[in-house]
Amino acid sequence: MSHPAARDIDKIYPRQEFVAKLRRLADALETGKRFEISIDGEKIRVPAGAVASIEHERGEGVEEIEFQLRWNREIAGDESASGD
Q1: DSSP designation for 74
Q2: Long-range contacts of 74-77 (CB under 8 A, 24+ apart)
Q3: How buried is 46 (Cβ within 10 angstroms: 0-12 exposed, 13-18 middle, 19+ buried)?
Q4: Are 28 and 47 in contact (CB under 8 A)?
Q5: What is the residue-wise DSSP string for 15-72?
């Protein structure tokens, strides 16, 4: 099995589009279903068993909150495969 290339992307969305994505994510988490999202042209499939966390960072004059989903690609199998 080939491994996807490493990547680290920050994508800025208009507020209305960001809210819609959060609603879809919340619905998937609440119903225990897989969440799919396209980021910078790549389709990402987040398995239902992904671990959710919230991270807070504070730096020089800036604060950041990150909502994170983490999963192991090998354990998730084909369910989390990216690309199409």
Answers
A1: H
A2: 76/47, 76/49, 76/50
A3: buried
A4: no
A5: HHHHHHHHHHHHHHHHHT--EEEEETTEEEEE-TTPEEEEEEEE-SS-EEEEEEEE--
Q: Which tokens sit at 14?
A: 């208009």
Distances in Å between the Cα of 30 and the Cα atoms of 5, 23, 83 are 30, 10, 25
Residue range 12-59, pLDDT digits in tens:
999 999 999 999 999 999 999 999 999 888 999 999 999 999 999 999
In this prediction, residue 37 carries a pLDDT of 94
pLDDT band at 83 (very low <50, low <70, confident <90, very high): very low
Rg (CA), the chain: 14
Mean predicted confidence (pLDDT) in 56-78: 88
Tokens 């959060």: give the residue: 22
